[in-house]
Model the fold of this input.
Amino acid sequence: MAARMARRAARICDLAGSGFRTSKTCGNLRRYCSVHGSPETTPLTQPLAGLPKPVYATSTEHTHDTQVTTLSNGLKVTSQNKFGQFCTLGVFVDAGSRYEVSYKNGVSHFLEKLAFMSSSKYESRDHIMQELEKYGGIVDSQASRDTMVYAMSVESSGLETGISVLADAVLHPNLSPEEIDLAAQIIQFELESLRLRPDPEPLLTEMIHSAAYTDNTLGLPRFCPKENTKLIDRTEILNFMHNYYDPSRMVVAGVGMEHEDLVKMVQKHFLTTKPVWESDFDASLSKGVDHSISQYCGGIVTEDRDMANIAPGTPIPELAHIIVAMESCGHKEDDFIPFAVLNMMMGGGGSFSAGGPGKGMYTRLYLNVLNRFHWMYSATAMHHSYEDSGIFCIHASANPTMLKDLVEIIVKEFVNMTGRVEPMELRRAKTQLKSMLMMNLESRPIVFEDVGRQVLAMGHRKQPEEFCELIDRVTEEDIVRVANRMLRLKPSIAAMGDLRKLPDYDDIQSGLASKNGRLPRRFSLFRN
Done:
């Protein structure tokens, strides 16, 4: 035992003498052998002897810029390469509920539910999923007011299979009566679920668009009305697809693959066969394409509703909800960026939101509203922007007895947007907007959606660096200017809940036109 310890001590001393740092005990001494200034020590600026020479990364001319190719039939193919085992791909169609003016409202909603059902190559949705599961694939579809999206994520080795499935789902769906009946049932269940949700934001969003764009384009319902679930049939759906699923209105987008490979596969699967609406639909029945420009009207849509027991067994109290909105701008306009900065500057959230400055706790709706009025349940700024118009909203909620005070507070916040903008709050809003933009674009699905939507709308994609430069250029004067632009027009109001304390629309409009944002005072001999 003693001999083994002696050999170990000697070995440690040898290491110490050779210049290696050690804190082991050598005899009765505890030494740290850095051997400063020893001629045997290799400086950190020189490579160690006997080791391979390191190879450092160098900058190259290879970039991951977004590439766009327009095929012979007008179909655009766009992609951006991105490192990873999986890729995301899909089809964006310039179609949606805003184009249903000549159709039964709800066709887009049906198309969303019928996506990736049976098609000419695949007998059922299960068949599609079995093919994609070999490559870890998942699919999704979404219908919005101005865009239809068919999307999937698969392993890069399954790109060919993914393109085949995508092309068949978009161009050759069977749309059988059984599938249409199933879609109708799914939609009815979804509509009932929306009515039972404690958070009525999807319904309020529908209402505020209806108030802002009465019976035109963006004001048409995104969700299929319940009475139309039994009226929409295969002919109506094919009629819509015949007009709006034209190659010139479609973009095939991908993230995580070589552009040349994607173009070749799209040419193979999208251009070699005729779509179902050209073979199974009588073109003489076509209702044509609607080229209407959205018309902002302003107005009010309300729903007096008992929300006392909307969420039994939860701590959510009875609330009255209201959205006040003004017309902003479309996403192609120069003022889109100042409106985005204004949206971040207003911020907001729930009264129980947690977090520090990075979570928006220093935005105006927190400092001026939620932190000052304890009875306010939530107040959040939102900006909905489309190709030719947009609305800037503040959604707030409180106990129904405080509804009048709630409306006046929100009106004052709109009016105060035209006042002084502090340099610190503007810098904070711009920094937060750039941070959110760059962090979101670290996600492959979000990059995919950004690429597809931009190319569909403009034919090309602006890089995030360009958006950051535009954000940096926004000044205090820009914020005041776009705020004044909003307040020149009529407001749009959507309200839900116990609305007995809701002020008149004319009073809200007068408050927005005043310098202090106060609603007109009405005196009565009787208590309301």
Q: What stands out?
A: The longest strand covers residues 376-385. The two ends are 97 Å apart (CA to CA). DSSP finds 17 helices and 14 strands in the chain.
